[in-house]
Amino acid sequence: MYASLVPTSAEMIRFLPELILTVVATLFMVLDPLLGRQSRHVYGHFSILALLGAMAAAVYVYRDPGAAFSGMLMVDGFATFFRVVVIGVGILTVLPSYRYLDREDAETGEYHALLLFSIVGQCVMVTANELIMIFIGLEISSIASYVLAGYLRDDRRANEAALKYFLLGSFATAFFLYGVALIYGMTGSTNLATVRRAILGGSLGSAPIFIGVAAALMFVGLGFKVSGAPFQIWAPDVYQGAPTPVAAFLSAGPKAAAFAIFLRIFLTAFQPIGPGWEPLVWVSALASMTLGNFAALTQSNIKRLLAYSSIAHAGYVLVALAARSNVGTAAAMFYMAAYAFMNIGAFAVVSHLSGKGERYLKVEDFAGLGAKQPGTAALLSIFLLSLIGVPLTGGFFGKFYIFKAALDSHLVWLTVLGLLNSAVAAYYYLRILVMMYMREPGEAASRIQPLTPGLRAALVLPALGTLVLGIFPGWVLDFAGRSSVFVR
Amino acid sequence: MQTVLQHPLFTPILVTLVIVAVFPLLAGYIVLVERKVLADFQVRLGPMRVGPHGLLQPIADALKLLLKEDIIPADADRSIFWLAPVISTFTALTAFSVIPFSKTIYVADVNVGILVISAMSAVGILGIILGGWASNSHYPLLGALRSAAQLVSYEVALAFALLSGLMVAGTLSLQGIVQAQMQRGIWFVFSNYGFMIVPFVVYMIAATAETNRAPFDLPEAESELVAGFHTEYSGFRWALYFLAEYANIFVVASVAVTLFWGGWLRPFPSVKWLALLDYLVPLLVFAGSGAASLVLVKRLKDPLQQKVLVGAALLLVVAGLVYVIPAVNAAAIGPFWFLFKVSLVIYLMIWFRGTFPRFRYDQLMDIGWKWMIPIGMGAIVVNAALGMLPPR
Amino acid sequence: MLMDTILFYLFAALVLGGGILTITRRNAVHSAIFLILSLLGVAGLYLLQSAEFLFAVQIVLYVGGIMVLFLFVIMLVNLDQAAKEKQFNRQWTVALACAGLVGAEIFYFLAKGAGAFQLAKGTAEANTGMGNTERLADALFSQYLLPFEIASLLLLVAVVGSVVMAKKRI
After folding, report:
1. Does residue C122 lie in a domain region?
2. Contact A455, A378 (CB under 8 A)
3. Which of A138, B40, B140, C59 reaches 20 to 30 Å from A402, CA-CA?
4. For residue A128, what is the DSSP state?
């Protein structure tokens, strides 16, 4: 009887990326007391190896897609795409962290262990096909992120960031969980496909209102995780207080995973009640774009500026969700990949420039960077242009496909307002460019250190990624288009 | 009358009444045994004045406690001060309700029996903490904090040890556990190729800590904390704590016997001809000890005490002889084996107290977290692996 | 049946009364005790649903584990300070509105009766003949194996995280 309960090896292999990361992260905790302080870079090397291995595994297991662990996981194109994205975000976070942790004289073992755990959580989230699994993945990712946000414990801003993130984050998770509970009560299942069937089957009696309530509650929880308005309030404070590589990670990894489950839940289980939740997403998308862009205009702190910009970008992806189509899903997937590259790149430059104790975070501190370190300035220009959405960068095609999908779904007003927003956003990105190239070097630029190999990789790789996505978007987009079909 | 006897609630209520009525007395005698045994370890006589060889000492003690003035400190939180010992006693006695004394003598056969016992011991901690806090005094508070940390730590090790046993048994019901040992014809402490001795040892150590017994009696370390959490308690309230403590000892010993040592089963329950033991051992134990006491009568000087001791010795001999009657034997042999084994385990715990010096606080935590819990976990893994092997 | 009803109301009163007293007592230890009472009431409700395993686990975990640690911390804190604090802060109007909303919801459903809240048929019901514990174990170790196992990772992360945040020197 019990032989049937043992997971088959095919199922275990479908879980391979998570297994690799978990084993390595756990190993760190065993190694930490054994290795001395001299070998503090070992964890970074191992992290990168593990992440590369996990990425290879994620690609490898896609050769044999399917469900695993009695339908808990679903390894399909969508999951594989986001697995690769979040693991890639992990690699791009580890690279600038070498220098950053050295500079701030922080412990490395726990940092990398928590980072890997967080990525495991995100991988679980994007692969999960079941609300309980999604919830556990969300919690693993979130708890590790809370701690990472406050990793510099002697820094008051970091403490503030961690506390705010933790309190609001737990609150949001509770909303999500209430939604899950309602769904289970109404449909008797937490499997997305079964929930969808139950909603379609109409066997719910008077329940549709509760399904709507559940969808709204989950929208609140997920809206917080993707920092979409009106649940964006935490993002600027957390991004500002968190160590810069962590802020980069938060703005790309957990967000990509949260969008993945957002798309999966709302386009699988709640797809039948789509017309009901579309206005919610519509309003939230518009509010995120507008709020993010206009608030960013007045920011003088570069991390806060990027935080508001990330809120605005969450708004663009929500537009893709509001489109409620496979094209929209594909556009959102492409956008998350492009966004991960350009945003992490931008944060890496900030991390490089800010100096010990993160003293130089003003927009003015970028003055003269173009003259002092032309390479860094050029790379930052690529990221900023991509964030604006200039052609030949990934950001352009991301926005292009999203608005195209929105138009296909007849969301004309949303598209128009979104495009206007992008125009507004150009101002504050260009302000940084102007600062870099047209001002005399200030104190920050004069104290800038040479690039370390890790940082160099952390800047060049995202720049390459941004350009590749901008010049040859077809390959990624094709894959996204093929994998964006949840319900066949 | 017949209908009353056949009523499904008859045995449970009877057993409950007997436990509530007899256990305080039994606890008193466990204390006497403890004092006598410790005295013997230390080459003293122990209580000798009240009754022959101090046999009536518990009764005198109980009278003294009941007649003492009941003091509540002026700044104490009166309601909690009142409530705390009640919690301790209530939970300790409630745990008795799932213990199977024999095939037929038990209050309730709950299918989560072991969990009920851990639940009760978990709630019992509250009695200690709240009592220590409500006294509004330094020593009790320190004792309460120590005990909270200690009990929570060792509960984990205890649970791991229990898990090993439960894996072998395949049920959480205590009666079911004994039945499983009967079916397989082996006491679980010897199963899995004898490896189950490891969880048993972990259990005994953790259980000693859970009951605040020496060498883990830091919550009431008299040399440091006067008397720990119950320093401010007096009279009957203190007696309640005392009762709870000994009830807990009895309960952990019962669980050890039930889970590891075959409960109310005789040794080698599968070997038919050893049913002989059912007659031989009670006869030897009761009649033997009776005969041994008769020898001692001459040494007593007081003629009244001589008479009392002769009476007691004769009672023992009669009890031994009664066990020879097959009908009585069939009904009473279960409780005999059970209580006999429980007494041995309690004796072991007294032995610990007489042998080991008290641990320091950091040593206590070290033992708990760095030794007992890893060993308990390892035992689960090994036992799970051994359990997968085909049965012999 | 009558016994069940009486017990239900008894436990429900414990839960609600304990909950109300938890938030109105000024003394934190008293609050904790009433919270324990409330949790015990929940355990009793589980027992009425013949979910024995949940009953025992509720007591072991909440009363024996979490509340003991709560009390442990409360005892280390200066209570006099807390007792002097105001019981209502500025947001009480918002809270009142929220509570009123929830209250209205409850009364609406009470008025409409059981039909207003149609739950899905439990999937476990078909599987009778096994004890509650066994059924739970079956579900946990077959269908929900992965969430069950990976929840341990969640706990591990929480442990590592709290040590990182709390310990003076890592």
Report:
1. no
2. no
3. A138
4. B
Confirm or reject contact between C100 and chain A (CB < 8 A): no
List, for residues A435-468, the tens digit of each pLDDT value.
Answer: 888 888 877 777 788 888 888 888 999 999 999 9
Nearest chain A Cα distance for residue C34, angstroms: 24
Cβ of C72 within 8 Å of Cβ of B119? The answer is no
Give the residue among B323, B333, B324, B262 at the shortest CA–CA distance from B104.
B333
First and final C-alpha spacing in chain B: 50
> Domain locations in chain A?
7-483
Q: C79 in contact with B at a CB cutoff of 8 Å?
A: no
Give the residue on B whose Cα is nearest the Cα of C63.
B123
Amino acid identity of B61?
Answer: D
Question: Phi then psi for C49, rounded to 5 degrees?
Answer: -85, 10
Residue C70 near chain B (CB below 8 Å): no
Whether residues C16 and C74 fall in one domain: yes
Chain C neighbours, 3+ Cβ pairs < 8 A: A, B
- The kind and range of the H/E element at A73 are strand A73-75
Q: Which residues pair with B341 in a beta bridge?
A: none
In chain A, the percentage of residues whose pLDDT exceeds 90 is: 46
Do C154 and A188 count as a contact with CB atoms less than 8 A apart? no
User: Residue A67: which H helix or E strand, with range?
Assistant: strand A66-68
Q: What is the ipTM of this complex?
A: 0.90
pLDDT along chain B (392 residues), means of 10: 73 83 85 88 84 81 84 80 88 88 79 86 85 82 82 86 86 84 81 82 89 78 70 81 88 90 80 77 82 79 80 85 79 83 90 86 86 90 82 56
Q: A181 CB near a chain C CB, below 8 Å? A: no
Residue C38: give the domain boundaries: 1-84
In a domain, C105, yes or no: no
Residue A152: closest C-alpha in chain C: C165
Quick one: average pLDDT of A22-27? 92
C152 touches chain A (CB under 8 A): no
The number of distinct structural domains making up chain C is: 2
Q: Is residue C102 part of a domain?
A: no
With beta carbons less than 8 A apart as the criterion, state whether A205 and C118 touch.
Answer: yes
The Cα–Cα gap between B156 and B121 comes to 12
Which residues lie across from A130 on neighbouring strands? Answer: A191
Segment B53-57 long-range contacts (CB within 8 Å, at least 24 positions apart): B53/B296, B53/B309, B55/B308, B55/B309, B55/B312, B57/B32
C170 within a domain of the structure (yes/no)? yes
**Of A217, A223, A225, A343, which Cα lies nearest the Cα of A285?**
A223
Chosen for mutation from A101, A116, A140 (greatest number of chain C CBs closer than 10 Å) is A140
Within an 8 Å CB–CB cutoff, is residue C164 touching chain A? Answer: yes
Nearest in space to B86 (alpha carbons), one of B255, B239, B288, B298: B239
Chain A residues touching C158 at Cβ < 8 A: 143
The answer to whether C150 faces chain A, any CB pair under 8 Å, is yes
